[in-house]
Write a structure and sequence with these properties.
Chain lengths: ~450, ~280
């Protein structure tokens, strides 16, 4: 009798192990390399322990990841179950049915807690195709000690780029190793054009008119790009045309820049005493405006999505629900410190007193993100969405080319007029080829 | 009779060669230096980095803790050596045939093979990807060894063909007259004489396969990713990981640098084989 019972017990245990092994899924996540993603990678073992599933990580540089994932999705390769994509790809890929809709992440998933502009930015035709991991806008970092020494008070209202240039002239002190301003100069749609795009918006310009005709040779573009090139040549650091986000971040953290208009997500780094020598001497205000205040701060989000070719969509959804939840933000805050919590995605993060205490920049970041409206980012009506980019597949090539031309103008290799004429010609050719214009 | 070279000229030549050598080695040296700095120190001005900051191995620890170096290393070894082995299996008979039994089309075939190197790899990415998907070779080490073998095959055949051409055909004829069959002729007569050339071909192919970053990044995901993917995972446009990226680079290039260092005599001998009559 006893022997029979033991055998039955053993059989039940074996069956249980077999079932749980069969249920456990192995998912592959392709992601980029930045601080927030590294934290997610570290904490993901908790999800693995809780579910019995396992994760293979593929970490790649942003552009390599884009190419790799595009190839895999377009060929239905099925190499990845979760991919990290940005606010540019989510609506385009979603509209092409390359991604799994994410409207059903479970009753416990608090969709209402996600900021509306972020949700809209990751949707196509009203369907959510990616859930935000963190979101950012742009604002102006400045050195409080330098402003104080120059007798300049922190702007309370949004200033114009003309006023911004006057401030920069007053704080420019290259003899003491401090340059008036550091802005992106490295060519690329995600590099210098992330700054130039909102600058053009502020000057009243736009990429295309309502008939999809490029308008890069317009007076507004010329005024904006001339302002940028003159400003950087007069008050920027040497070799500015090769400085991207990372280089400027390093320069600002090392005390070499008095002002810097860039990603709000860099605030956590600048305010971290272990990494920044100016953590206690940095303030921030809104990115400047000029003839309009529309589209003056960019919008970007890193988000997680599931390619339509995934063979483990259910397990992948379970992971997304965990990694982009309110509980995950709290987990990061409690284990890695609140300043490291993923910013810009959830209302609950900005209601949390612990986060607000650890991140003095939080309210300004929130205002910048809520003010960035990709659906209405230009003075005149346009047929596209996006603040610093245009949400069409052709933009990546056009944006990179225009970025190269403007970077060459900044380096003194050609005039602004020449750069804009080349850019216009290229954009017209690409848009004609793509069938937008005849 | 040896040529007389004046001492000042010799000193000048030596200094110039040393300077050029240092210039070429400098990027590698700088990566090594950065890998022993903290992330905060690695972004400082070059002189500050050299003299005003301390040294640490924390980046190596962080890289090993975050990524499985040995898995990537094993994949690199398998792919580099596997592709070379597969390449030799095809290239030795092919080069033998072209060197010792040429036809009037041999030169054209050689030129055609070389011309395949002129095609940008991205041009055939999608068809290759689809073939790999349908044959289950995506993210597999064998698949990568196969594609890298094909990519480097023209170079292997060309190099072996050049070396084989230096060997007098009469020696092979003599072997045949002594009763050697084709296998014995290649293994016991041809191979020993062409050994320096074959060794340098093998080494060069291993180096090329080790450093190849297009196919290895595009055809792998989590399982077969070699050290090129390991380095790429530390490159970031948003975030400062210079020290970790440098540490990852040093860990990736160290094995192949060591191999090249240990076999440099053989490599130079092979590359100059037949250059002086």
């Amino acid at each position: 009798m006893m022997r029979c019972l033991r055998m039955q017990l053993a059989a039940v245990t074996l069956a249980g192990v077999t079932v749980s092994t069969a249920m456990a899924a192995e998912i592959t996540i392709a992601t980029v390399n930045n601080s927030d993603m590294i934290i997610m990678q570290e904490l993901s073992s908790q999800w693995e322990d809780a579910t019995g599933n396992s994760i293979n990580w593929v970490v790649l540089e942003e552009n390599v990841l884009r190419q790799r994932v595009t190839t895999d999705i377009a060929t239905d390769g099925g190499s990845f179950d979760i991919i990290t994509i940005g606010a540019y790809e989510a609506p385009i890929w979603g509209a092409q049915d390359w991604l799994v809709p994410l409207e059903d992440l479970g009753d416990a998933y608090n969709y209402a807690d996600i900021f509306e502009p972020v949700r809209n930015g990751l949707s196509a035709n009203g369907t959510l195709y990616a859930v935000p991991f963190y979101a950012e806008s742009s604002f102006t970092f400045y050195r409080t000690d330098i402003f104080e020494a120059a007798g300049i008070a922190e702007p309370q209202e949004q200033i114009t780029y003309d006023q911004f240039a006057e401030i920069i002239a007053a704080v420019h002190d290259p003899n003491n190793g401090v340059y008036g301003t550091c802005q992106r100069g490295k060519a690329g749609w995600g590099e210098n054009m992330a700054f130039v795009g909102p600058l053009v918006n502020a000057f009243g310009g736009q990429w295309f008119d309502m008939g999809w005709n490029p308008t890069i040779d317009s007076p507004e573009w010329k005024a904006a790009v001339t302002y940028y090139v003159d400003l950087m040549n007069a008050y920027g650091p040497p070799g500015a045309s090769s400085n991207g986000h990372n280089e400027n971040r390093a320069l600002f953290a090392d005390g070499k820049c008095a002002t810097w208009v860039d990603a709000t997500s860099a605030a956590g780094y600048i305010f971290n005493p272990d990494e920044s020598s100016v953590h206690d001497r940095t303030g921030f205000f809104q990115a400047p405006k000029q003839v309009t205040d529309k589209g003056t701060g960019w919008f970007w989000a890193w988000a997680l999505s599931i390619p339509a070719s995934s063979k483990q969509a259910d397990a992948a959804k379970d992971f997304l629900a965990w990694a982009t939840s309110q509980e995950y933000v709290e987990l990061v805050g409690n284990t890695k410190g609140w300043v490291a919590a993923p910013p810009g995605t959830r209302k609950s993060t900005y209601d949390n007193p612990e986060y607000l205490a650890a991140a003095p920049f939080a309210p300004t970041v929130l205002n910048s993100i809520l003010a960035a409206n990709p659906a209405d980012a230009t003075l005149n009506p346009v047929p596209y969405t996006g603040v610093q980019f245009v949400a069409i597949p052709e933009f990546q090539g056009i944006g990179n080319y225009v970025g190269q031309q403007i970077s060459a103008a900044l380096a003194g290799q050609q005039s602004v007029d020449q750069a804009l004429a080349n850019s216009q010609q290229f954009a017209v050719r690409e848009m004609t080829k793509a069938g937008y214009i005849k | 009779m040896a040529r007389l070279v004046s001492i000042p000229r010799k000193s000048f030549n030596t200094t110039l060669a040393g300077f050029l050598g240092f210039l070429m080695f400098f990027p590698v040296l700088w990566i090594v230096i950065l890998s022993f700095k903290t992330e905060g120190d690695a972004i400082k001005a070059p002189l500050e980095i050299l003299f005003a900051t301390g040294w640490t191995v924390e980046s190596y620890g962080a890289v090993q803790a975050r990524s499985d170096y040995f898995k990537h290393f094993t994949n690199s070894v398998f792919i580099a050596f596997g592709s070379t082995f597969l390449g030799l299996l095809i290239a030795v008979p092919a080069a033998w045939a072209m060197a010792f039994v040429p036809t009037k089309r041999t030169k054209h075939i050689l030129m055609w093979m070389l011309s395949t190197k002129m095609l940008p790899p991205v041009g055939v990415l999608v068809p290759i990807y689809l073939i790999f998907r349908d044959t289950g070779l995506l993210d597999s080490r064998f698949g990568l060894a196969l594609i890298l073998m094909m990519v480097n095959l023209p170079i292997i055949i060309w190099m072996l063909y050049t070396y084989f051409r230096e060997i007098p055909g009469e020696i092979l004829e003599a072997a045949r007259m002594d009763g050697a069959n084709l296998n014995a002729e290649i293994i016991f007569v041809l191979a020993p004489m062409a050994l320096p050339g074959m060794a340098s071909t093998v080494l060069l192919n291993i180096i090329l396969a080790w450093n190849e970053a297009f196919w290895t990044l595009n055809l792998t995901a989590a399982k077969a990713a070699p050290l090129t993917a390991f380095i790429a995972s530390y490159s970031s446009p948003e975030g400062l990981f210079y020290a970790k990226l440098s540490a990852a680079s040093v860990m990736a290039i160290a094995p192949i640098l060591a191999l090249g260092w240990l076999s440099q005599k053989q490599l130079v001998r092979g590359l100059t084989f037949g250059a002086v009559k």
